[in-house]
Amino acid sequence: MRRDRFAPDPETIARLKELSGLNDNDVQKVAELGRLVHLPDSWSLILETTPADAAYYILEGEVSVRRGGEEVATLGPGTFIGEAAIMNHSIRSAAVVTKTEVTALNFTPESGRELVAAVPSIGEAIAEADAERTADNAGE
């Protein structure tokens, strides 16, 4: 995994704004708190049943979400992953492995919580996504 300081270059800022629908001030806050990471194909970035240490916002590429080794979802650009566990201080409920090369913003538990406090719409979107995933998991 290559990890760069996230210098909010115009191209990445434009991509983030396009995917997220956030206003300029909120995009800037995301840029300040996230770290840009470039992940190779087949990289395990989240391990099932482990403590939460990071969340990611996918800018480019696709990831496979797996439970018990079985793929349950494929997620791509514009998706937060791992956010529920860092917000709830919980154990990971699934593994996440890159299916392609992925460019993402990485958030620590601290920066993730700071982001939700600074940009309420992100907190609302995370809560909605978490509720949908919980409902989907209950229906399995």
Automatic annotation (TrEMBL):
Gene3D superfamilies (alphabetical): Jelly Rolls
Record Pfam families: cNMP_binding (PF00027)
Protein name from the UniProt record: Cyclic nucleotide-binding domain-containing protein
Tree of life domain: Bacteria
InterPro entries for the chain: cNMP-bd_CS, cNMP-bd_dom, cNMP-bd_dom_sf, RmlC-like_jellyroll
Domain Cyclic nucleotide-binding: 18-133
Coiled coil: none
